[in-house]
Amino acid sequence: METIASPVRKRPVNLTLSEDLVTQAKTYTTNLSATMELLLAEFVESRRKANRVRQQTADACVADWNGFHAEVGSFADEHSTL
Fold first, then answer.
1. How far apart are CA 40 and CA 48, in angstroms?
2. Which of 5, 8, 57, 66 is the residue whose CA sits 20 to 30 A from 74?
3. pLDDT score, position 37
4. 32 exposure class (CB count in 10 Å sphere: 0-12, 13-18, 19+)
5. Percentage with pLDDT > 90 across the chain
6. CA distance 63 to 36
7. Per-domain residue ranges of the chain
8. Where would I find the H helices in 2-31?
9. Residues 49-65: pLDDT tens digits?
10. What does the CA dihedral 27, 31, 32, 38 come to, rounded to 10 degrees?
11. Residue 73 zone, left/alpha/beta (φ > 0; ψ -120 to 50; rest)
12. Quick check: 25 and 32 in contact, CB under 8 A?
């Protein structure tokens, strides 16, 4: 059974863009809104991927440090002030 995709809700937003840039962009597209939406979606996805990579790097660092700590112990163990 196929599911019918519900239409994506859209809403108007106000943007302040360079007049010259908009004029130039209109020579390449007849639908500036659709073009901006596509570019914004690509931007959001690239940031999402960058955040995922950054989180994976941090997780790997924590795992390495925890492994080191489990194997060697803490540097502070030898210098207790108690």
1. 12
2. 57
3. 95
4. middle
5. 72
6. 40
7. 29-71
8. 19-26
9. 999 999 999 999 999 99
10. -120
11. left
12. yes
